[in-house]
Design brief:
alpha+beta; six-stranded mixed beta sheet; 30 strands; binds FE2/S2 (inorganic) cluster
Length: 652
């Protein structure tokens, strides 16, 4: 009689195994993705499976003592201590008795898919670089002179196949007490870089159940955003953002490079400021998630080239002048503590994605990792809107990239009533084309300003200013309502027919909110605000247009708007402004914070690091700073929506 047939779902992997073979053993032999930290000792419960067809043998009486139980003594003990869901078995304890179909639930798969936030986003396959392993180490023997570390290395090799790991001195210093306290059983935390030998990060006595955490950081010129992730489940435990304190040295990147050029030691000042902020962000996010920062064993940082150099402690002056040479364009794997992330685990590692070129950084690489324009049939334009916009254009044949200095206006800075996206900020606005009256919504309230109950609903936050998406909509709505001409000039009360267009110096401003009855500030859109938005949108459009010229096309198939507030930008208003090239509105989608998502992918999926390093070598970089056509496009794009491009989709 042949051995029982075992089929694993959802992988479909199958094979015949002798009666009595543990399910975990069968899974390993077939290459089934079934997790294990304790190596089959019935301690970690990561190997849970469900028999979908067929049964495993019953074992004695249940814990309740009244019936035959599916569980053996180890499983029953585990259930008593921590609980094991009904119908589940520990794969390391259940043995094959007859033909069986075994389901491996997502939480037992090492490489499970983590669903990204937006429905349109692809899932992230879990493949973290850092894992924990429970190891039984042989006790010392008078007749065997090998050290405790050598016996640990032998056990790691025999149990887990881990060879040649690097062992930092502080980890070695913890080994002997941990082995003795754990009665020769220890949990070892091992970092497996995608391109180098494994490295021991920690050793602790017995079975260490504390969560392994990672931090994905999008280090922008204006804001620094972080996502704290569970490295096993992929779950985002908390997200937070803080202002980049380097703003006091200059609003945009070039002014920070100038600061470094003009002030001896200025680069070191900025390095210190950003490193302090990174560690503060790590502490704030950990506090929000109610976890210890010491559990964070890895971080990934994506940023533009100037931030890249400054956080690394490299002088950015070469990035301020042609040929914009980077100190290094390769990815980097470093000790997190070397970048000021001192509250993380003392051996935590940090991975920085590669830079594409002197003005196109690791943040653009992260956008490429997240949006994968090089894997698309359709010619896709990805615009990551920020103080410095990253723009990618491509399909399977070719991908081009550039960056464009849009300035901070889209983030609410340099706008008279501008503010960061926070409760109380106007994020949506409509202006009636007949009455010229505005209605708006603020972050943190679902009501429109003319809905009954709006004042009560916003009593706590008030109406405090306009954020990036709000100012984009405000300018576009003003244009559609006839309050602005194509050159961006705000008309007078007589010209527009509304007293909301009030004089302001020698120009005019449009009153959005008069501050009553909430006692908050008067909120207007001034001529200066319009000019700031025109400059920012012209830079964005000119960058996109330059890539289209280089690609030899007049239109694209898809436009993806990304950025910290990219998801909140209305495609219609972006097109009315001429921020983006003309395209059917249905072809314009939002991707949220693509650079942040790219950082999260690199954090959770080790293989993606090798992948993006390869992709970056194939991206063609276009330099906006020295390209005369950029200036031409910039000037023509100053008009709303554009001086010469027809924008036929707007007429549909
Ligand atoms: Fe750890 Fe089964 S492998 S409980």
């Amino acid at each position: 009689m042949s051995d029982p047939l075992v089929i694993f779902t959802p992988s479909g992997k199958r094979g015949r195994f002798p009666v009595g073979t543990p399910v975990l053993t069968a899974a390993r032999q077939l290459g089934v993705d079934l997790d294990s930290v304790c190596g089959g000792r019935g301690i970690c419960s990561r190997c849970q499976v469900t028999p979908a067809f067929g049964e495993f043998p019953k074992h004695g009486v249940s814990v309740a003592g009244d019936a035959l139980s599916d569980w053996n003594a180890v499983e029953a003990r585990y259930d008593e201590k921590r609980g094991l869901p009904a119908g589940r078995r520990l794969g390391c304890q259940a043995t094959i008795q007859s033909d069986v179909v075994i389901d491996v639930p997502p939480e037992s798969q090492v490489h499970r898919q983590v669903v990204r936030k937006a429905a349109t986003e692809r899932a992230i396959e879990m493949d973290p670089a850092t894992h924990r392993y429970l190891v039984d180490v042989a006790e010392p023997d008078m007749h065997d002179p090998s050290g405790d570390l050598q016996r640990l290395e032998t056990a790691l090799g025999e149990t887990w196949g881990i060879q040649g790991a690097e062992v930092p001195l502080p980890v070695l210093a913890k080994l002997q007490p941990a082995l003795r306290k754990g009665n020769w059983q220890v949990t070892v935390t091992v970092h497996h870089p995608h391109d180098g030998p494994p490295r021991l990060l920690d050793v602790s006595p017995g079975f260490d159940e504390r969560p392994l955490l990672g931090l994905a950081i999008d280090l922008g010129s204006t804001t620094i955003a972080g996502h704290l992730c569970n490295l096993r489940s992929g779950e985002v435990l908390a997200s937070a953002g803080i202002m980049n304190p380097q703003i006091r040295f200059g609003e945009d990147l070039m002014s920070r490079v100038s600061y470094a050029m003009l002030n001896p030691g200025g680069d070191a000042e900025m390095t210190k400021a950003v490193r302090v902020a990174l560690d503060q962000l790590a502490r704030e996010i950990a506090a929000e998630a109610a976890v210890e920062t010491g559990g964070i064993v890895e971080s990934v940082i994506v940023c533009n080239p100037v931030m890249h150099h400054l956080v690394l402690g490299l002088d950015p002056v070469e990035l301020g002048q042609a040929p914009f040479a980077l100190a290094t364009s390769d990815s980097l794997s470093l000790a997190a503590a070397d970048l000021g992330l001192t509250s993380l685990h003392p051996q935590a590692r940090t991975y920085l994605l590669p830079c594409i070129a002197g003005h196109v950084g690791a943040d653009a690489a992260a956008v490429a990792l997240s949006e994968e324009p090089g894997n698309q049939e359709a010619l896709t334009l990805v615009i990551d809107v920020g103080t410095n916009a990253e723009i990618l254009l491509g399909n399977r044949d070719r991908v081009l990239a550039c960056s464009s200095p849009t300035g901070p206006a889209f983030e609410g800075a340099q706008i008279s009533s501008g503010q960061r996206a926070a409760p109380g900020a106007i994020e949506r606005i409509e202006i009636d084309p007949t009455t010229k009256e505005p209605r708006f919504r603020v972050i943190g309230c679902d009501l429109w300003s003319d809905d009954p109950g709006f004042a009560a609903a916003t009593a706590v936050t008030g109406v405090t200013g306009i954020c990036g998406s709000g100012i984009i909509e405000a300018v576009a709505e003003m244009r559609m309502a006839g309050l602005l001409d194509a050159s961006g000039l705000i008309g007078s009360a007589e010209q527009t027919g509304t007293s909301r267009c009030e004089p302001e110096g020698r120009t005019h401003a449009y009153l959005v909110h008069d501050g009553t009855p909430d006692g908050g500030p008067r909120i207007t859109v001034t001529q200066g605000d319009i000019r700031a938005i025109q400059l920012a949108k012209s830079a964005l459009y000119a960058g996109a247009r330059l890539l289209m010229d280089e690609m030899g096309v007049d239109s694209v198939d898809r436009i993806v708007l990304a950025g910290a507030f990219g998801a909140h930008i209305s495609p219609k208003h972006a097109m009315v402004l001429g921020m983006i090239p003309d395209a059917p509105l249905a072809a314009v989608t939002s991707a949220g914070n693509a650079a942040g998502t790219g950082a999260r992918i690199a954090l959770l999926n080790r293989a993606s690091r090798g992948r993006i390093e390869q992709v970056v070598r194939q991206i063609t970089k276009v330099e906006t700073a020295i390209e005369p056509r950029f200036q031409e496009h910039f000037v023509a794009a100053n008009a709303l929506p554009h001086a010469t491009a027809p924008f036929p989709e707007l007429r549909r």
